[in-house]
Automatic annotation (TrEMBL):
It comes from the Eukaryota. The gene is PRF1. This is Peptide chain release factor 1. It comes from Mucor velutinosus. InterPro entries: Acyltransf_C, Plipid/glycerol_acylTrfase. One of its GO terms (molecular function) is acyltransferase activity. Pfam families: Acyltransf_C (PF16076), Acyltransferase (PF01553). One of its GO terms (biological process) is phosphatidylinositol acyl-chain remodeling. GO terms for cellular component: endoplasmic reticulum. CDD domains: LPLAT_LCLAT1-like. The lineage of its organism: Eukaryota, Fungi, Fungi incertae sedis, Mucoromycota, Mucoromycotina. Residues 54-149 form the Phospholipid/glycerol acyltransferase domain.
């Protein structure tokens, strides 16, 4: 059921807010031939390879971030095992941790900032940084470390890597508040959505992260978020995330352009329509309401 429901999310993007992923993989993610799956005839990307069990962290630009992350999981054939961890869900961590290596697949997604960037949250982040004599970020909020550290220590026996996504959307300017540009309503109901979703992917080995000491882990997390803010600065200046140029004919580019769309059979698509119909009814009602014809 979860797998079909999450395919529904991909279908919603494909049909109502069509966009391309521009995925940039940091060199610490490994060789591109081990990451990207291509069609033999066309060369088009049809899948991505991730470990069976991972923790995923991401900056939080807009409320639809989680939908796009689910679409990445779809490319990795992990859309049926993705779980977004909210503060109230921390009590479930022991359950996730019961599965050892080689058992149940898992994508555990966290937003360490806790919420999207807004004028009020940006001010709180700035005030906290000043109060504690810390570096403040411009495009991201200072991250919280408690939840991520708890996840990492609890799942250390069954997860080897944390994957970090830095997300940037086309059409957003440096001084914009992203959520004020692309709301859930504008993306899915009012035909105003990002045409490109840029994601910079990094990978960190869990056993190299200082999880045993709270202060050390907090500093490690802050440093990663400072790097993330620098990535966002590059994105807003150049419209893309940084990538090393391809210097050898045998070397594959670390930037991959992938349209967000289903790779499913006709039978799977037919099943998805069962889930899509309620959304269409809501869309019709909203459109009629906005035109004053209800």
């Amino acid at each position: 059921m979860m797998q079909t429901w999450s395919q529904n999310l991909v279908a919603l993007i494909q049909w109502f807010a069509p966009a391309d992923f521009i995925l940039t993989f940091d060199e610490n993610c490994g060789p591109m031939q081990d990451i990207v799956q291509r069609d033999i005839k066309t060369g088009d990307v049809h899948g991505l390879v991730f470990p069976k069990r991972i923790i995923v962290t991401s900056n939080h630009q807009i409320y639809a971030d989680w939908v796009y992350i689910w679409c990445i999981a779809y490319l990795g054939k992990a859309h049926g095992v993705l779980k977004i961890l909210l503060k109230s869900s921390l009590k479930n961590l022991p359950v996730y941790g019961q599965s050892k290596k080689g058992d149940q697949s898992l994508w555990l997604v966290l937003f360490p900032e806790g919420t999207v960037v807004s004028p009020s949250t940006r001010k709180r982040s700035k005030d906290f940084a000043e109060l504690n004599n810390m570096h403040d970020n411009r495009y991201t909020l200072l991250p919280r470390s408690t939840g991520l550290r708890l996840c990492t220590t609890t799942l250390a026996d069954s997860i080897d890597y944390i994957y970090d996504f830095t997300i940037g959307y086309s059409g957003i300017k440096p001084n914009d508040i992203p959520e004020q540009v692309y709301t859930i309503q504008s993306v899915f109901f009012f035909n105003f959505y990002p045409k490109q979703v840029h994601v910079y992917v990094r990978r960190f080995k869990v056993d190299a992260i200082p999880t045993s000491d709270e202060a050390d882990f907090n500093q490690w997390n802050l440093e990663r978020w400072k790097e993330k803010d620098e990535l966002m600065d590059h994105f807003y200046k150049h419209g893309v995330f940084p990538s090393n140029p391809v210097v050898a004919s045998t070397e594959e580019s670390r930037v991959v352009d992938v349209p967000i769309r289903l790779n499913s059979s006709i039978f799977d698509l037919a099943r998805i329509w069962v889930f899509i119909v309620p959304y269409l009814l809501v869309l019709k009602k909203l459109l009629l309401s906005s035109s004053g014809t209800v």
